[in-house]
Every structure is written in structure tokens, then in C-alpha cells.
């Protein structure tokens, strides 16, 4: 097993009364599509900005590719970043924008042109070199931003809600394409979203954040089928949680819910209460989430 590409250790960050990172520790493996999912204000962007070096933690450490980068400035971290707003330069054409990502690479003119064309093919904009960026659609502009961020072959690409300004249909297409770009380049992606479906269908692992902590970090199937807390279960739409009483009787447990009782397998030791989850709706595609129905949520 190789060393992780990123290790966050006990990060703490406070802004006045907000604490977007509380003793936040997390590990991301090389080549993973890793997503941070959580409600607005849970600290997703702050954690991402600390990884990028756009904010510094009050305490804790950030190790990228084996090097302590906690106080290294952003331009020396060898990371790429894509934001919600298409941060492209309106005065440069498409090739100029993508080539901007190569300015520190010391490439010849031919090498630059060939790398730009390779990147444009990767993001589905083959032949767009001399196009004016102001005449591109939102989705196309975001592809230019992605190509530019990938140009210097960053160790990690950080993406903060990059698709949320796009309409539904384009967003779905771009989700599939982003996943494919990630797999074809083998780049580690750290992706921020508050869209549950997006997180579950695109990612290798998902960290669900709440109030500056992550409450569960797991594969999408586990997050959806085995939420570890009521918060995680409730975070998925179409899901109702009912409170139940448990009474352990030997190998079995009697569960009482809304005045009715039933016997269930003994799980989770001597608990006296549980949550019962009903009717969580499975998502669009992928190998996950095909099963419908009821699940017990521990905790
Ligand atoms: N520069 C800042 N100064 C003061 N408070 C900040 C700053 N950046 C973030 N915060 C606060 O930290 C908390 C977490 O913010 P953050 O932007 O990380 O959340 P988020 O999970 O990305 O939310 P959203 O989904 O809305 O983008 C919020 O309460 C926010 O107001
Ligand atoms: Mg944010």
C-alpha cells in the first residue's frame, strides 16, 4: 500500500463564532475521487481552502505527498483548483487560458501547443484553441477551467462545487465526464458538493461533514445503506426516520415502534433505542443504491 497523497491531522479553524474545522483529521489515497459532502456552512470550502493554502489552520497539519505543507504558500503546493464561478480570463482565447496553466513548465512553443490540444481533447473541446471564451456556454467555460487546472499535472485537483452553476442536464453530463477525466488521468480529485446524488454517484469515498467535523467517511454504498448516525440518514432526501424502543431478550431484540412490536436480530449490543429508516429513494445510476426499503440505523 502506498502512502496517502493527503493527510490532514487535527485541523482547527475558527472565524469569530464560526468553527468550520474542529479537530479535523482525514486521509485521501492516491488516485481517489474523494468527496466532501455536507449542508451549507458545514466547513467544506474552508477545509478545501486550507488544503489549497488559501487559508491557514489555527492548528494541526497538512501533509501532501509526504511533505508537511501546513505553512507553504499555495503556489508551491502543486495543486489545481476549480471553483463554482468559471475563473477564466476573458481577454485570452481558449488556448491562452489553458496555456496559462503551463506558464511555469518551461515548455517549447510546440510542446505547449501539443499539451494544450491534448488537454482540450481530454475535456471534450477538441479544436477549440482559438475560440473566444466569452462566446462559450457555462459548461464549456468550466471545461476550459478544468483543462487549465490539470495542465501542470497537479498532485491533487481540488474542486469546489464546480457544477452547481450549470443547469440540470449539463450538470449530469459533466458529472459523468468529470469522473471519466479523473479515471483517465489518474489524478486525485477532492470534490466539494452539497448534492447527495452527485456525491454518491461520482465518488470512491465520501466524507459527510457537519459543523466542522466529519460524521462518516466511507464508500457511497456504506454511506447510503449503513448511515452511522441519524444526521447522515436524514441528509438523504425522501427518507423518514422513526424513533423505536429496543428490549433485548436473549439472542433477539424486541423493537417497539408506534405501539407495534417485532423481533429482530440482535445487533449493536445493549442499546435501548434505535432509529428506523423508511423509504430512502435509490439514486440514478451506478452499481449502488439499487435496493429499496427499510434499514436499521444504529446510533
Ligand atoms: N473568511 C471567513 N471569515 C469569516 N467566517 C468565515 C470565513 N470563511 C468561512 N466562514 C464561516 O465558516 C463557516 C463554514 O463556511 P464554509 O464556507 O466552509 O461552509 P461550506 O460548507 O462550504 O458552505 P456552502 O455549502 O454554503 O458553500 C460558515 O459559518 C462561514 O460563515
Ligand atoms: Mg462552500
UniProtKB/TrEMBL annotation:
Pfam families: ABC_tran
Protein name listed in UniProt: ABC transporter ATP-binding protein
SMART domains named in the record: AAA
SUPFAM superfamilies listed in its UniProt record: P-loop containing nucleoside triphosphate hydrolases
Keywords annotated in UniProt: ATP-binding, Nucleotide-binding, Transport
Domain ABC transporter: 6-236
Superkingdom of origin: Bacteria
One of the record's GO molecular function terms: ATP binding
Species, as recorded: Sulfitobacter profundi
